[in-house]
Amino acid sequence: MGGYQAMTLLVAKFGGTSVANPERVKDVARRLVSCHRGGSQVVAVVSAMGPATDELLALARSVNASPPARELDQLLATGEQVSMSLLAMAIEALGVRAVSMTGRQAGILTTTVFNRAKIAEVRADRLKKELDRGRIVIVAGFQGVTAEGDITTLGRGGSDTTAVALAAGIGADVCEIYTDVDGVYTADPRRVPRARRLAAVSYEEMLELAASGSGVLQMRSVEVARNYGVVIQCRSAFTAGPGTLVKEAKDMESAIVSGIAYDDSEAKVTVRDVPDRVGIAAEVFSALAAAGINIDMIVQNISENGTTDISFTCPAEDLTKLRPVLDEQVCGLGVRGYVVDESVSKVSLVGAGMKSNPGIAARMFRVLADEGINLNMISTSAIRISVVIEGGGATRALRALHTAFGLDSDQVFEETQLSSEELAAKAEKGR
Ligand code: ADP
Ligand code: ASP
Ligand code: MG
What we know:
- It is a single chain.
- By secondary structure, this protein is α/β, with parallel strands linked by helices.
- The protein has helices at 22-37, 52-63, 69-93, 125-132, 159-170, 203-211, 219-228, 280-290, 319-330, 360-370, 394-404, 420-429; strands at residues 9-14, 41-46, 98-101, 108-110, 119-122, 136-140, 143-145, 151-153, 174-179, 200-202, 232-236, 244-247, 259-263, 266-275, 298-300, 307-315, 337-341, 344-350, 375-381, 384-390.
- The strands form 5 sheets. An 8-stranded mixed sheet has the order 3-6-2-1-9-11-12-10, with helices on both faces. Strands 13-18-20-19 form a 4-stranded antiparallel sheet, sandwiched between helices.
- A hairpin with a 7-residue loop joins strand 11 and strand 12.
- Helix 1 crosses helix 3, helix 6 runs antiparallel to helix 7 (219-228) and helix 8 crosses helix 9.
- The radius of gyration is 23 Å and the shape is globular.
- Adenosine-5'-diphosphate binds next to loops.
């Protein structure tokens, strides 16, 4: 343990845009070197450069439409290995010793679930030794290793979780997540230009926002932060500023609505004329669970003539796994058939103050009705209300709700740092 307590121990994560090209890698190197020279021990976690992960995925799919999960992880993990070694080289060029480490070298042990593994343990002895030798340590985000020695990845956006788990594992004083916006906003500022940066947000609210589609932090990273009491500071890699603190709710005022999230990555499936008998829902959803399909919302109507429709949402990317289960197993249960709608979007209001303020759902539905937006499905938690609507109305819904719940800022969000190609890629991702 020795020297750790005395010096500030910092974990700083840089997302794909922040290391997208050599110039940005050098900028990150300069920032890390200046922290190091200021007397901090520094661990940096990096994502793959720019669109590298998407490109690797496309490459995999060009040789196999559904690539084997283990091989996909072997491939995807290479993206972060490029950026980690380049960053270490850029730091060395500034005259400071640096060492890059893969997930395995950094002791990131995970479950054996390829493509969406969870970090089970961090064995950071080697990493700590390198810090004690005065080096800046660069860790490849998004990857780990199973007990059997296989490489795994942690799901899209997983470098956030690498950073938070490492911060917990080595007892860091701060976990900074540097990205291409200057914090967590009341809504995605690229979609709602009048969104406001939040100075602080509670774990509880950030978890709901992340679960509802706010991709700024991976949901699992917020879970780990909450479980281990790691304070996350989410800030811009390009501009100075305090960003957003994600932390315990105490001493924070609880707004009725803190943020609005948006998710168009899910599809809605309706199973038609399901026989209305005891156990049928268990049979349908057991079949889906056995195929590893994550179900989000479920709605069952009252039965007419002994049958009922059941609708649910699931990740659109699971549809290739889902269709055979529906065709071979669910259709065998005597249902009439099924309909898939991939064009839906989910819009969610999140706020800890909802617990003690009735009527938020009514107001939300009124705002959407006034915009002429039809609600397909509704679900709630203690601090969240989500609705599924036709995809086409999503941006209108978001902006109308943002205004109606008093979240609009007087300033319009301005993009300063990204190239037009990067902005186009972001827009494509958020569609
Ligand atoms: P990184 O590559 O740094 O991990 P991500 O693309 O994963 O960056 O996350 C940052 C993006 O998250 C922003 O560019 C922004 O468009 C999007 N985003 C979605 N919801 C929010 C929100 N509530 N606040 C800030 N950014 C958000
Ligand atoms: N490179 C990975 C991804 O694109 C992990 C990350 O960026 O956090 O999802
Ligand atoms: Mg991310």
